[in-house]
Design brief:
single chain; 150 residues; mainly alpha; 2 domains; 4 helices; 3% strand; elongated
């Protein structure tokens, strides 16, 4: 009985490999092929690739690293700008809402003080209804956003 280790040893010595009955399985002149594949993923080349670049030009690895650092900083700055702009837009909406609501309440108060209680009630009721709608819709949007992040 031949184990895998002995088959490999026989193949290296050029001896034929035989099965349990002693019959030759693989011709003596058969060659085998080994394929080794390496995969690399990342912002900078692998160590082996960097060594190859260094053979071409000793400055290439440091230039590649400097470029990767600049690119990484650019991506971080871009993300920070997007976050900042997002909050600026939200704040503009909030300020506009506060101004509009304040104006509507002032108008409602003016209508009430000039003898138009129905108009004042209509404006005040519309503002309260509008605020309730905005809060409910905003809450639903926040829940969807939170679920999308998971």
């Amino acid at each position: 009985m031949h184990s895998n280790g002995s088959k490999l040893a026989m193949r290296r010595r050029g001896l034929p490999i035989r099965d349990l009955d002693g019959n030759k399985q693989i011709p003596q002149n058969m060659m085998s092929e080994v394929v080794i594949q390496k995969n690399h993923s990342g912002p900078i080349p692998s160590h082996e690739q960097m060594q190859g670049y260094k053979k071409i030009d000793p400055q290439l690895p440091s230039r590649i690293m400097a470029e990767a650092e600049k690119n990484s900083e650019h991506i971080r700055n871009k993300e920070m700008l997007q976050i900042t702009e997002h909050y600026k837009d939200k704040n503009k909406g909030r300020i506009s809402g506060v101004v509009a609501i304040t104006g509507a309440f002032i108008l409602s108060g003016y209508a009430l003080s000039t003898g138009y209680p129905v108009v004042a009630g209509g404006i005040g009721g519309a503002v309260v209804l509008g605020l309730a709608t905005i809060f409910v819709l905003n809450q639903k949007a926040q829940i969807k956003e939170d679920q999308g992040d998971i």
